[in-house]
Amino acid sequence: MSAPQDVVDIYTDGACRGNPGPGGWGALLISGGRERELSGADSATTNNRMELLAVINALRALKRRVSARIYTDSQYVRLGITEWLENWKKRGWRTADRKPVKNQDLWEQLDELAAGHDLEWHWVKGHSGVPGNERCDQLANEAIDALLGLD
User: Fold this and answer.
1) Is 111 part of the annotated catalytic residue set?
2) Distance between CA 33 and CA 60 in Å, rounded?
3) Residue 73 bears catalytic tag
């Protein structure tokens, strides 16, 4: 009999100074008493792209199939993956009003990565004192500062 698998708690956040503008993302993975922080930045991006990249990079960091609870303050990410994605694909990556889906490249990556895990998606109110979300916001903003030479 195999040992029970730890659940990974994943917190993610994106930030942008201007929209578009310089942006950053942060992710915090917590499992078995261990924590791993990830972050990155882009000089010309949008907040939604940073929110998506936070989740994508967190899932890329996983070495094997896991059960994970993902906490995001982005309804765009949570609703996109749980409600909108299947219909976008059925409509050839078009929205309900027949416009091209924004960030299709990232949604395709997230769709592929998410399929490799057992995921629960949770929304948390941003800037409301949730420690994991606050830390990811800090990581995203530190990544922007580093990109801009402000660190």
Assistant:
1) no
2) 20
3) yes
Relative to beta strand 34-45, strand 21-31 is antiparallel
Domains recognised in the chain with CATH numbers: 7-148 (3.30.420.10)
Read off the pLDDT band of 140 (50, 70, 90).
very high
To the query of whether residue 145 is one of the catalytic residues in this protein, the response is: no
Percent of the chain with pLDDT over 70: 97
- Residue with the two structure tokens 């967190």: 58
pLDDT at 1: 41
Query: Which of these is catalytic: 73, 80, 132, 142?
Result: 73
pLDDT in tens, 74-99: 999 999 999 999 999 999 999 999 99
Residue 6 falls in the annotated catalytic set: no
Exposed/middle/buried for 69, CB within 10 Å: 0-12, 13-18, 19+?
A: middle
How far apart are the C-alpha atoms of 71 and 40, rounded to whole Å? 18
E strand intervals along 4-110: 7-16, 21-31, 34-45, 67-72
> At residue 116, what is the residue type?
G
With a cut of 80, say whether residue 6 has pLDDT above it: no
> Which entry of 23, 24, 40, 137 is annotated as an active-site residue?
137
Catalytic residue at 14?
yes
